[in-house]
């Protein structure tokens, strides 16, 4: 029987590329996101069966209803990729907006918890499973104006460790991936559609792309059962830290 993977934030970027990579490995996919048309386009490009769940990770009742609506044959999730999340704004703490803070904390932290809460009980019952949380270099190193985004990703780092400890006795692997600069819609969302500013983030060096993270995930899930790549930081070769990138402009 094919394994089932559930990917949040599957409609774009790392989630989209990871869905494709996992389909290539033979996973049946539960594709989660807010943009149904994009998920349907992704579904059509995948040959194995997949199931679409449309919800906002920030809304507990939407998350609960979505997972409760899964048909029986889709309930045994083997692999959960907690990918949904974003940055909103890049401002000094004294200038940050409540709206941006709530979007990041509710999406990056609460959202990860809500989805995990719906998936973990079946993994515990079956005493098997793998959860991969997408964190960030920003969760390991706080940078100027990153304040709340960095805090949200530091929370993801802590939750990956906490989940690994609490789920250890149930044979559930928990892995954490901390990417550096990945050229996706990330900066366009952070800078609220200011595309020239977003593009400048990735100029002068070769950033990672979503497929690089998807390849890493494909490798991680293909490791033998006794191997867990527990915490992987993945950076472009030009990047040395959260803030140091060798650029040639
Ligand atoms: C994305 C990477 O360095 O822009 O999480 O925070 S960074």
UniProtKB/TrEMBL annotation:
SUPFAM superfamilies: NAD(P)-binding Rossmann-fold domains
PANTHER family in alphabetical order: ALCOHOL DEHYDROGENASE (PTHR42901)
Pfam families the UniProt entry points to: adh_short
Family of this protein: Belongs to the short-chain dehydrogenases/reductases (SDR) family.
Keywords for this protein: Oxidoreductase
InterPro entries: NAD(P)-bd_dom_sf, Sc_DH/Rdtase_CS, SDR_fam
Keyword flag Oxidoreductase: yes
Name used for this protein in its record: SDR family NAD(P)-dependent oxidoreductase
Domain of life the protein comes from: Bacteria
